Structures are given as C-alpha cells and as structure tokens.
Amino acid sequence: MPTRLCIVRHGETDWNAEKRIQGHTDIPLNETGRAQAMATAFGVAHHQFAALYASDLGRAWQTAQAAAERLGLEIHPVPQLRERHYGIFQGLTAEEGAQKIPEAHARYVVRDPDYDFGTGESLRAFAARVVAGVEWLVRHHAGQTILAVSHGGVLDIIYRKATGRTLEAPRDFKIPNCALNWFTIDAHGWHLQAWADRHHLERVLEQVVE
Asked: What pLDDT does 209 receive?
C-alpha cells in the first residue's frame, strides 16, 4: 500500500522576497509568510494526516505551527528536511554572488553536484540526506498519509527523484511558498501526484497586496 506525503515549502521570508539565499540561516516568516501559513492550515484541514513533520529551521517550524493547531497534531522535527547549507553563498543574492565570488556562482549556475561552497554542502550530499529523510518517514508511516513542512531545495530534490530528473538538469519548475505538493511512494518507486497547488492562498495573497 503506498504512503502519501503532502510536502509544503515554508511561508515567505524577507530573504525570499529579496531572492537572498538562506540555506541554514534562520530567517523568520514575514507578514505575507504568516498569512500564507494560516491559509495553508485551513487548506490542509480538509485532509486526514497520520502525523506532522517539519524541518527544524524556524521558518518551516513556524509554518508548521499553524497547521498543527488546526489539525490537532504534534510537530515532529526532521533535521534531514533542512534546506541545503550554501556555505559562503548564504546571505547573498545570485547577483551579489556573481560579483563577489564568481567561481562559486559559476558552479551554482551549472548545478555542480560535488561543489560545497567552501563551507557548505554539496548538491549530491544534500540529495542523499533528503532522500534518506523521506525514506525514514515512509518506513515509519507505511500506507499512511503524512504532512511535512520543509524548504524549496528539499522539494527540488524530491521532485527530481519522483520524475526521474538529474541533479544537474536546470530547474524548469516553480516551487511556490506554502503550495501543497503531493507524492506517493510504494514498492515501485516515488511518484508525483500533484504539484504547486495554491488554491488556498489566492484570497490571502490578494488581501496582503491590498
């Protein structure tokens, strides 16, 4: 029997809005992100989940708290679902990285799987960590449906695993904050069911803009 996972990227932060690379830097949700988290809590309330998990970084945990209150579930931390550590690139925008650390930026653009940004984590090591974390969840919840709040980079890896894309392939898909992304994992592999469902966010985002 397949295990179903609904994986949500955390709500928006100021660094997201600035397109600044966060990695392990713990940036809290901004006003839009807090509104997204509340809307997501109502969106997931239409589903039944056996458990709720989250990355242990604050922006993911803060997003999960709204869902936990709505669903009546305890949040369980999963450090394997943390964002990638971008080392010397953390805190920079891609443009700033191109100016200040051009060699690192060039490796970033081509998605070099073995480059670790000097003090960070290689894409290959990051992918292995994420896959191991998801497999741990599946082992503990075989045949159940679970909710997890994580990060854009983590969802990038899971999307690639479920669709057969390589780590080096350009990212040609969007990963919106607080969208619902559904996967099933069974004996035959990882499967993408639904991607970037944002219907629960439409009214909230309109109100924040106003």
From this structure: 41
